[in-house]
Amino acid sequence: MERVYIGLGSNLAEPREQLRGALKALATMPSSRLVAMSSLYVSDPLGPPDQPRYNNAVAMLDTSLAPLTLLDALQAIELAHGRERKAERWGPRTLDLDILLFGDRLISEPRLTVPHYHLHARAFVLYPLAEVAPASLQLPDGRHLADLLAACPFEGLERLDEAL
Asked: Catalytic site residue 83?
C-alpha cells in the first residue's frame, strides 16, 4: 500500500454534495482505504472570473492500485458526478479529482504528473494538504510542505468548520 493524497474540487451542481459523493466513492474504491479528509475550504476560481467559488478539500488514501489505474478510477468518479472535459482549462466543473502525491514517486506520464504540477502555488491545495499530511512531509522532489506553505499566502481562501 502506498500513501496517496487526492485534491478534490467542485464549483457546480451543489459543490458540497459533489465532494461528499466523491468522498463516499473514495471510501469504497477497491484495493484502497480512505485514511483522512481535510476540512472544507472555499476558494476563488482560477481561470475565467465569471464562475462560482470552488469548494476544495484533500483526501489521504492508502492504495495498492498502480498510478494510472488510480487515475482511471478517479476519472470514472468524476464522470459519474457529471464531469465534462472541455478544451477550456480551469473552467467551472462538477468535480475535479487530482492525484497530488503518490507515495515517494516522481511520475511524468502523458496523462499524469506527480507531484501535481501546480501544487506549490495553490493555497487551496497546500492548506488542506497540511491538515492531513505529517508536518514534516517532504515531497519526492525534495521540497518540504512547510516551505511551500510559507511561500503561499492564505489569500482568497476560507476554511469552513463544516465536515464533509
From this structure: yes
Is residue 96 flagged as an active site residue? yes
The 10s digit of each residue's pLDDT in 39-79 is 999 999 887 778 899 999 999 999 999 999 999 999 999 99
pTM for the model: 0.94
The yes-or-no answer on residue 50 being catalytic is no
Give the CATH architecture of domain 2-160. 2-Layer Sandwich (3.30)
Active-site residue 44, yes or no? no
**Which one, of 96, 102, 58, lies nearest residue 77 by Cα?**
96
| Residue 120 CB coordination number (10 Å) | 18
Instruction: Copy the grid coordinates of residue 117.
Output: 504540477
Helix (H, G, I), strand (E, B), or coil: what is residue 9? strand
Catalytic residue, from 20, 53, 72, 93: name it: 93
